[in-house]
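Internal ticket #5521
Category: modeling
Description: The requester needs a full-assembly model to guide mutagenesis choices. All entity lines are attached below as received. Residue total reported by intake: 218.
Assigned to: D.W.
Attached entities:
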Amino acid sequence: EAQVTQNPRYLITVTGKKLTVTCSQNMNHEYMSWYRQDPGLGLRQIYYSMNVEVTDKGDVPEGYKVSRKEKRNFPLILESPSPNQTSLYFCASSGPLTQYFGPGTRLLVL
Amino acid sequence: GQNIDQPTEMTATEGAIVQINCTYQTSGFNGLFWYQQHAGEAPTFLSYNVLDGLEEKGRFSSFLSRSKGYSYLLLKELQMKDSASYLCAVGTGNQFYFGTGTSLTVIP
């Protein structure tokens, strides 16, 4: 079954404690991206990757890092989380005509 | 900057037809996408338009006018399960930009 998986699904953490949200896809897609979704602001692209070792900033990259060492995995790293990074995060993997979204990670930074 | 506008909320009756509009101003255009998102869930793909005109897919159709920067999603024979948010998104270059979504409530 074609899918995008994310872990963890829910996370409560404290300001400054480094965390990583994992993302994996089994569709052999080259393009992957991360979004955050906030009420009234919609989905905003954080980072995207065109292929292995190729990553680029989206609209809201500040405070985030990514890596793409293998085609299937695209982790999102928050080195020093802050409360304004409390949000719902989606990883997505793109085929020729559409994006497939992971189930989402709900993050609360205290 | 990129600007994508859609109505915040709409209400329609079960069995009816509803049209959700989206206007966009973006630098570059690779295609326009519509997604459905139920509360607490991930967005799921509904339709893609890259050329002007109407694309029909069962109860859902999507229209695009590139010269006007305009698209709509048409939902026919509305069902209660169609209550959800509908997201308009534009692909430009290597990026995707989303509207804030239209929350559709279907009432009996």
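Resolution: model delivered.
Comment from assignee: Chain B has a mean pLDDT of 95.
Ticket closed.
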